## 1
Amino acid sequence: MSIITDHLKEVKERINQAAQKAERDPSGILLLAVSKTQPVEAILEAAAAGQNAFGENYEQEAVAKIRSIRTNHPDLKLEWHFIGPIQSNKTRAIAEYFDWVHSVDRERIAKRLSDQRPADLPPLNICLQINISGETSKSGISPENLPGLAKAVSVMPRLKLRGLMAIPEPETDPDKQRKPFRAMKALFRQLQEAGFELDTLSMGMSGDMNTAIDEGATTVRIGTAIFGPRNYPVQQ
Ligand SMILES: *Cc1c(COP(=O)(O)O)cnc(C)c1O
């Protein structure tokens, strides 16, 4: 068995165990394989092992890989999630090539994505990125400003608001690690109670997926635990 196939199996086992511990149905947790900096071959290997949702952070790198896979493996139906910071000059390609965007934190970027989503594709699935750990992170909208952004995005014609995403600061103390995930779940519930039909809580990475699942994650974004260390620094 190849190492990626092996790792995928281990990660799924971890998801199952964490779900069981939290008394949740593991089928309600999507495993997103984060393939940034990994070559097409690694993605194909994961796809051959049954993985079909992939996360990418860098538009140019991602589009090159997606195009290559679509050209050389036209029968392979993979789902692409954009999870990196978004500059406005990248929105067109993101709207054209991706099925999901997890990292929307500004109305202006959302509007560009909606305007640029090709008419022959279904609406682009959107998660709003929350700055849940405070000062240190530059990405993500503050919880105070979330309701306004959710309202604006929910009426954009070519977007479908699906949920929330966060990248909490890594913590060594398990109690401290739990706090931001719990806060995310509370925000998620508040929006649902306000009438937004959300089904996606995107949180948890290789190092903190168990806690994220325990606190209600419905999508975990896993890179190194599947593909190993990242290959090269991407400049863009
Ligand atoms: C790189 C990245 C991941 C994956 O992180 P790992 O620690 O390698 O699992 C998840 N989410 C985002 C937003 C990332 O940029």
## 2
Amino acid sequence: MKWHLGSFLCLGYLGVAWASSTSNVVDSSYADPCAAIANETWVSPQEARKCFGSFPVDPDIKANIIEVLNKSLAFHASVNYQRQAPPPFEDIHEDVHGDLARISSQDYSSDFDLHLETVHALKRLVDGHCFYMNLCYDSLYTTYLPIPLALLTDELGVQHVHVAPEAFKISSTEFGEELKFWQDALPEELRGKLELLSGAEVLSIDGETPFATVNASAVQTGRMQAFGTRQNMFFSSYGRTEAGWVYHFGDFAAQSLPLKDSVALTLRIQSGSDIAFANLPYRSRLSSSVEPWTNASTFWANNCLATNSTNGVNLYAKPNVVVDSGERPQQPFIDPALVRARLRKHHKNELFDASMAQNIELPAEMTPSSPLNGSSGVAQFYMLNASVTDAPTGVLMLGSFSASSFNELQSSLLDGLKNLKTEGAEQLIVDVTNNGGGYICIAHWLHRIIAGPRGTTVPQAGLQTQTRASPLAQLIVKHIAGGADPENLLLYNPLNWEYANNTPIPGEEDWLQPPVRKTVNGVEDMFSQRLGDECQPFEMDPPAEPLFDSNKVVIISNGRCASSCSLFSISMAKREGATTVVVGGKDDVPQQYCGVVGGQSIRFPNIDTEIKASELAFSAPLCRDHTLAPPDFITNSLHGVTWRLGFGIDDPLEPEEWQDHPADVNFPLTADIVNKPVAIWERVAKTLL
Ligand SMILES: *[C@@H]1O[C@H](CO)[C@@H](O)[C@H](O)[C@H]1NC(C)=O
Ligand SMILES: *[C@@H]1O[C@H](CO)[C@@H](O)[C@H](O)[C@H]1NC(C)=O
Ligand SMILES: *[C@@H]1O[C@H](CO)[C@@H](O)[C@H](O)[C@H]1NC(C)=O
Ligand SMILES: *[C@@H]1O[C@H](CO)[C@@H](O)[C@H](O)[C@H]1NC(C)=O
Ligand SMILES: *[C@@H]1O[C@H](CO)[C@@H](O)[C@H](O)[C@H]1NC(C)=O
Ligand SMILES: *[C@@H]1O[C@H](CO)[C@@H](O)[C@H](O)[C@H]1NC(C)=O
Ligand SMILES: *[C@@H]1O[C@H](CO)[C@@H](O)[C@H](O)[C@H]1NC(C)=O
């Protein structure tokens, strides 16, 4: 496709510049709100919005985004389930195709307004696997307040919203000079004394009771199915990445779009009866990964157009592969067993959550020290102080099921847990706070090595799954079964999958035939047959004995444990009897210990690659020319879907996704332990183990 967006926008801007220069009223630099904030690291949300809002809707771009999403959603297994989710998730009811049709026929005053509508339509699926983003706008800036909040429980057991006790410490370290902006914005009696706000009780937010604001955020934030978890995400929390311990400001104090200008707060300053009123502005900080710009046209050209990773590629369009168009190439002999052994793929099930990517460091005094042997990247091991617990207690902090090396994470988990045993641990806390998932087989592995070889872990330690069998997916599989993926590079290759009885599907099997027809919320849908294990035998030998008694395993988090983290936690809780704990949830709201179970998640480039690459052996019909095939995105867009859904444990005929995962315990956070991992683990161990 030929695309001349740059010239279109330049014309738009020349028009504005021309109009202002002839009238001689407006300085031409002000006519371009993107030029006005070029080179600025910190801007007001309003300034950022003016730049974002200055691009008119381009009908071709609008049609492109709607078409990509509408066609790509055929690969999202949950579309019809999400028309109306069952209790306890009945607040999820989105007809996403209907919403896209509405957006398509509606006029918007700017491309940014259109963008917001599109993002919100997908957020209403409340599914962190199925999202739409455009890096032209989303997370280009992060919009901050210097006062992350926490939901704390007092001595009488009553919960109140507070400014996090560590707020000033974190903000002064992270924001440096910019803090002065907020210091100066405080009312006279507090000016320059931002520190006094740390720990303050929040009596009202924008004139309403704090939980009215928490709820409003929970209604629109998307990502996690449980309402309680979405409330928890309003507050600050911690996490562990490969690089180190991180602090998350939460949805109140860090937002990925510059939509809110300020917040009016009524506060009770700590240990005093003084009531303070503060009107604090939000400030937007430019992401370090953004390409600099000088004016609107370079802003657009550098940040808003598709990059070389936005779309998929034809993996077979390599110089060394001769494609004689129109003719079916000789099919090489492929020994399915050999290919299976050679090409083990590490499929992922994980959230894409821009709000988690800020990498703000947890202050040293809150960070667990001296991790034990086996600790590596996202997996960190500790022993709790013997004086704290009756029985020696080991801790595994697992911040993610993803890592730069699958093998290292796999061996780290085994080495670390074995080492905890050597250190004498008799019970185990697994902290999966803010763990958004990752490798499916690492989830199975961790379950298997903790629980040992049993009926619930061998031959499969996870859930059986199904993928959606849309007409285009069926065509892709038909092509691959006919030889279109000789190197077994594609997801739909039967050589990746096993039947429900855990025997391999042969490479020439058209495995989506016949599709399994199912009526979901009154709509006819089609799925694959049930798929079995994909991880065993593991690439590393698991121990012959359980490493821990699962009844002495406690899994704790803020509820935001998703995807592969859900696969692990659900197996441990429902099959092995592990205890699940949500830390810091609202006491009268049911807490789920995980959500967004999925089965496998993929992004748009994966879908696009399946379509583009599976055409090799066929002159017609080429998948990419099929009327159901999405075109390439022309914008800097990201989109993902749930490609497979795991079947449930309690109800094995329905997806686990919308089955109940009630936490055994909703553990209160007090001012002395909030966001301090060791203090939380010790309190949990003392109380529950
Ligand atoms: C941005 O910075 C560059 C180099 O630092 C400078 O040449 C340019 O004029 C600046 N642009 C604006 C709009 O301030
Ligand atoms: C989405 O796709 C469906 C099925 O192909 C089609 O009927 C519908 O018109 C499309 N909607 C939009 C908004 O393009
Ligand atoms: C927030 O939502 C919960 C759950 O729906 C509800 O029980 C509570 O009353 C709401 N609180 C406020 C202040 O609206
Ligand atoms: C925008 O900036 C680029 C490079 O700095 C320049 O070449 C172009 O003429 C500018 N466009 C407008 C409309 O000012
Ligand atoms: C994609 O673009 C980036 C940045 O321009 C470049 O570093 C990278 O090599 C490119 N990758 C491919 C596969 O072309
Ligand atoms: C940790 O591992 C190192 C190297 O393998 C070993 O020398 C050391 O003794 C181990 N420490 C403990 C406490 O097990
Ligand atoms: C263990 O507890 C003792 C006594 O309370 C304390 O001095 C020590 O620092 C603690 N050790 C760790 C590793 O927390």
## 3
Amino acid sequence: MPDLPPPTLRLTIDTDALAQNWRSLDAMSGTARAGAAVKANCYGLGVDTCVPILRDAGARDFFVAHWSEVPPVLRHVPPDQVAVLHGVVTREEADFARAMGVLPVIDSLRQAEIWQAAGGGPCHLMVDTGINRLGIRPDEARSDAIRALDIHALLSHLACADEDSAMNTSQLHAFESVRERIPHRIASLANSAGIALGANYHYDLTRPGLALYGGIPRPELRDTIRQVARPEARLIAVRKLERGDTVGYNALFTAPDAMRIGIVSLGYADGILRSWGDAVFTHDGTDLPILGRISMDMIALDLGKAPELGEGDWVALPYDLPEAASRTGLSQYELLTLLGNRFERALT
Ligand SMILES: *Cc1c(COP(=O)(O)O)cnc(C)c1O
């Protein structure tokens, strides 16, 4: 088979911005060091692209969610720097962790027993301080299964760090009291937003994810965090509409006059969902509004303000994340992780 021709979608990763974001979050973490959440294929941006950059910037603590995410990360960093947040749900997962030398995050008494039965060894422990997803309850701290563990990092996760919520302080207090009751070497509470909550939340290790990749979960991070992901699409067709012509699924747009439109091949599989209707593509600062409904693999753009654009030219998706989140009704997490694998990854 000949080489594939280059795709009409490209996702440029600003490697400088990614490295700088890690360094900024590490500096903001004060005496704590920053790790890196690299689950979900580095929030959609690509493990093979992002993990080496985070490693070279200085990160030494990498977090994934699933065991299936371990092998790609191990191409770039040693196993004792990788932890699996979902822990050991089965004996097979515990055996795999031990064989690979990767640390599980123990998330329940049952997981603690599975880990010990498989032979145990160093692990992290998640304590639930109110988010009610994973983690032992504080009143389980002194149980035999937990006492038997060799706990490296004691973790908890904040539910509302991106808001000024009373829950932040209540989780902080719950974490404080459980810390005294469980032997551990280091403690870790803050995600990206938690880093901006201040020194009380930093402990020994912070675990930023979203903000590494350009997400801005709190206004305090606005001037520090730089955009990392820049998706672009090529116009695969340009056409003229007459007054009264309609565009796309369900004919939701009707041309008020003769106009030029461009088609990009982009849609649901690329994370561009119907809720994107009010978003505005751009070319060199010129706005190119979306016309009609986002259809399966196709989006029509108004080229009224860009007469110079023709077939084959590149246009930019609106990926200022806070702004895109408010226009699409999607969270910044979703906007990143939904970007599919039809984009060719390019580095700057
Ligand atoms: C995903 C995750 C993080 C990173 O959170 P962000 O909000 O993306 O910074 C940190 N810790 C745990 C346990 C996580 O699941």
## 4
Amino acid sequence: MPGFVGATPRRTSWAVWLAAIVCAVLAIAVIITGIAVFAIYIIYQPKTPYIKVAYAQLSKLVYGHSGLLEIEMVLHLVAENDNKKAHASFSDVSCLLRFHRIDVAELRADTFDVAKNSSLELDYLFQSSSIPLDQAAMETMDVALKQGVVSFDLSGHARTRWRVGVFLSVKFWTYLSCELRFFWSNGSAVNLDCSSKSH
Ligand SMILES: *[C@@H]1O[C@H](CO)[C@@H](O)[C@H](O)[C@H]1NC(C)=O
Ligand SMILES: *[C@@H]1O[C@H](CO)[C@@H](O)[C@H](O)[C@H]1NC(C)=O
């Protein structure tokens, strides 16, 4: 009986069919998700918002042989949102200014929004108290003043959040880490290039 011979394989083939259908449904779901993500990407072209330093000026530097350093620095940060169709919000913005691994001044900003395809300028004044430098930092400062260029390290971060489409909200940390160098004579920045944009 040919039917009898086929009976056992037929039971197996039901399981195979079921598995095939499940796989096909999953595959279609994956493809649809992929197309949706791709379409959102093409339509919205999401770009990570970032912060950069647009202007920096060392407006005051007092340093005596007692090893105490006091500075004042004007910093214009720009929060950039290159997304053409999405607002971005920046939160937990904080920057730390250091001289030779010694904390000099810290800055925190409130949460703010940047409209789509736009940027926001934030003007800050870093003011330090009298910071005692250690031996290594004092030597570095002596050399810097002799050469006429003083450098500080600026590190910072911000949490950015923006909406892609109606349902997808993207969150990213963006990090800033750069060396700010200033002419001691007039306090203007040397070759300022400081941005948290990932290249
Ligand atoms: C985005 O801004 C640039 C200049 O700031 C402008 O040329 C461009 O048309 C704007 N695009 C949109 C979609 O608003
Ligand atoms: C500051 O001084 C340096 C050299 O001492 C000079 O090259 C630079 O142009 C000056 N900047 C301004 C704004 O005067």
